Amino acid sequence: MTQLTNEAIRYIEANDTGYHYYEMTPEEARASRTVPKWQSSLTPTLASIEDQKITVRDGAKIKVRIYTPPHEKILPIIVYYHGGGWVFGDLESADAGCQLLAEKAQSIVVSIDYRLAPEFPFPTPVYDAYDALLWVYEHAAELNGDPTRLIVAGDSAGGNLATVMTHIAKQENGPAITAQALIYPVTNINFSMNSYSKFGAHFGLDTQGMEWFTGHYLTEDTLSNPLVAPLQAADFKELPKTIILAAEADVLFDEGVSYAEKLAAAGVEVNHVVMPGLIHSYFSKMDFFEEATIDTVEKIAAFIK
To answer: Would you call 250 a catalytic residue per the annotation?
Structure first.
């Protein structure tokens, strides 16, 4: 039986208001999920944090945030995609995790503010994510980054986008991605897996929440598209080495295991790490999970070096 951490219990109790985000409009849900700025003695001292706008394929401009640690050499680049079910989340919700990644992985981190559903459903977030990856690769020198050491990372829906980027880059002979770091990623759209039965209510991400997210992001005919459900991809060979950080009490746990198994069967180096007693959405919730977020980043940093 899963024993939740005290932090997870505290988070669940604090958010058990009886009125869930999936009973709200997307606008209401976004407002309710605003993440306070991380203020702590553990906040890294970085050389710079800068926002910039880039142009994507349809002519729109999206924002990216560039985190640069103090350095005297060319650094790896991590392209980071925030979570939020493709419906909410933004640069602020990923800010603490990205600061820590820049410091502990000694890397340039570029966080991507891709457009959100339902205003911009699939495939727009995927296109934004890939166009941003191309932009980072093409501007690596300006960022003091090394384009031959390019990593993708993300949490939840952002983990989904990150791993989808590896498939697109391989198919289109795009930038060579050297590693991917996936924090409780969505890899399949299937609500019947065992972890949904075990953790489908009151563990940070309810089954009803995933149904709400996918209802805003997808249409019925796209549910098994590999750019939505990478577990359904035909080919897993020659993908980059992968670390998957899995919250133990998470509806997405089983699909993360399945994705790790498919990668391993294709000969890809993969490390599936279970975070005991933790729930979905812990990453970057610094008021509750500062220690767990730091631990997660340290595990990622050790893997990608």
So the answer is: yes
